[in-house]
Specification:
The chain is about 40% helix and about 15% strand. The chain has helices spanning about 15-20, 35-45, 60-70, 85, 90-95, 115-120, 150-160, 175-180, 185-190, 215-225, 235-245, 250-265, 295-300, 325-335, and strands at about 5, 50-55, 75-80, 100-105, 130-135, 165-170, 195, 210, 270-275, 280-285, 305, 310, 315-320. By secondary structure, it is α/β, with parallel strands linked by helices. The chain has 14 helices and 13 strands. The protein has a seven-stranded mixed β-sheet, sandwiched between helices. The protein has a four-stranded antiparallel β-sheet with strand order 9-10-13-12, with helices on one face. A two-stranded parallel ribbon has the order 1-11. A hairpin with a 6-residue loop joins strand 9 and strand 10 (about 280-285). About 45% of the residues are buried. The protein folds into two domains: about 15-245, Aspartate Aminotransferase, domain 2; about 250-335, Aspartate Aminotransferase, domain 1. Helix 1 packs across helix 11 and helix 12 packs parallel to helix 14. The structure holds pyridoxal-5'-phosphate (PLP). Pyridoxal-5'-phosphate binds near residues 58, 59 and 199.
Amino acid sequence: MIIDLRSDTVTKPTKGMMDAMMNAKVGDDVFGEDPTVIELEQKSAALFGKEAGLFCPSGTMTNQIAIKAHTQPGDELICDVNSHIYNYEGGGISFNSGVQAKLMTGDRGRISAQQIEQSINGDFDWLTRTSLVSLENTVNRAGGSFYTVDQVKPIQKLCNEKKLALHLDGARIFNALVETKESTQDTGKLFDSISICLSKGLGTPAGSVLLGSKEFIKKGRKIRKVFGGGMRQAGFLAAAGIYALDNNVTRLKDDHKRAKEIEKILKQLSYVDSVLPVDTNILIFDINPKLSSLDFEKKLAENNIRMAAFGKQTVRFVTHLDFTDDMLGQLEKVLKSIR
Ligand SMILES: *Cc1c(COP(=O)(O)O)cnc(C)c1O
């Protein structure tokens, strides 16, 4: 038994998902003729009360298309210093859009309207035009913390007043919503564009959907082609997405429960110095300098457990669809045996 806690992207499609994929009706989506892609796009858009959706190979692409569509070269966007768009998309903000990022240090990745307001540039020849604010929910690098709808409302109001676009990197938005019990509809009302990932906790092999107005998605479709993301019979992948939205959302709660269990175990271990609060399916913790994260990684690897070293002392575990109660038991045994 291999226990893989590196990411919630490591899941393999289940039999039910594979059946849905194999039976998908497909067509050429660059011609707009794949019925399953169209169904997934319409279904996700309706779920969040948006007019249209755009199926893309990755969440990096949906985010980067959104940034490109909302900005002009030379603009500035505002985001938290932990943002995926800034840290893990290969410098795409500047590479793809010629845009620079103004970085905020939020409360575990959550930035406030006040912080944003202080960072919007005035209208002077020598200042960069601020055109976009991007939030992440949940925040990956901050340990899966989440925003509530009420926390985002003042940000939305400010963006409206200042004529800034507001984007959500919702790679794990469903993890947030199963905790807050808030609706996708109320979430949709807050943002001009939303990226949702199907290949994280929802367990598909690939795919993300970008949501927004008809006009925005029309622009996004053109950018997707330029970025090389126009796929042909993509309905096989879209079918997995439809299956995931129907079957794998509410069960995310189980991943959160198991993450909480792991938190309890970690707090009993003498070699664990601190654990960030566990809000969803991500655990970030520091181990004692006597045992570096690389040593810890090696010891776990010897026991068939895989993890991500996030820093010299920092470790990340992510729970997911393929992490079972049996694995939790085995993990507990191994963690308690390490010295
Ligand atoms: C995984 C992730 C993405 C998208 O990643 P891809 O691997 O390109 O699909 C975007 N934002 C966050 C916060 C993520 O965790």
